[in-house]
Amino acid sequence: MTDTPVQQTRLARSMQDYLQVVSFRLGAEEYAIEITTVKEIILVEGITAVPQMPDYVEGVINLRGNVIPVLDLRRRFALAAAPFDDQTRIVVVRFGGRIIGLIVDAVSQVMRIPRGDIQDPPATIAGLAGEHRVGIAKLAERMVLLLDIEQVLGAEARGALEADDAPGAV
Predict the structure, then answer these.
(1) Rounded distance, CA 158 to CA 168, Å?
(2) Residue 143, Cα to own-chain centre: how many angstroms?
(3) Does residue 137 contact residue 53 with C-beta atoms inside 8 Å?
(4) Contacts of 137 (CB under 8 A, 6+ apart)
(5) What is the pLDDT of residues 87-109, one digit of tens each?
(6) What is the distance between the terminal CA atoms of the chain, rounded to a whole angstrom?
(7) Are 104 and 29 in contact (CB under 8 A)?
(8) How far is CA 93 from each of CA 37, 38, 39, 68, rounded to the nearest angstrom?
């Protein structure tokens, strides 16, 4: 049985009232990115270091025949280093026509957040630490920082990744 046009319109409107995200941990904090940017989530293994890259570029991996750069989000956010463990994952994302891996401490869950529960970052952090954040989701028992993947990578990271594509680069 198919939905009527009215039911389809209600469903579409209902879906617009939510933001679907993948949440993950870095240290004690929980972050999230829109699920539409996430291609897949994989184990951390087989990373090859690339010389002369910024410290947050962990290296490259071979993902089913495609070489993709991998960034350590802890280092990108200037957080204290932590050893990789059995919870550490690479979140593979689509970014500006590219595929990039982001190392996170653990992937938490996929969730739908009501848009009404998302606030802009407070003005006191919006210009500083808030530059990577789309907003802050207020959930019943916790807050989740919503990230803009393009802002997280920023011009510096894009430049470093483009240099990686130069002739002769690994």
Answers:
(1) 18
(2) 17
(3) no
(4) 19, 21, 32, 113, 117, 118, 143, 144, 145, 146
(5) 999 999 987 788 999 999 999 99
(6) 53
(7) no
(8) 5, 4, 5, 10
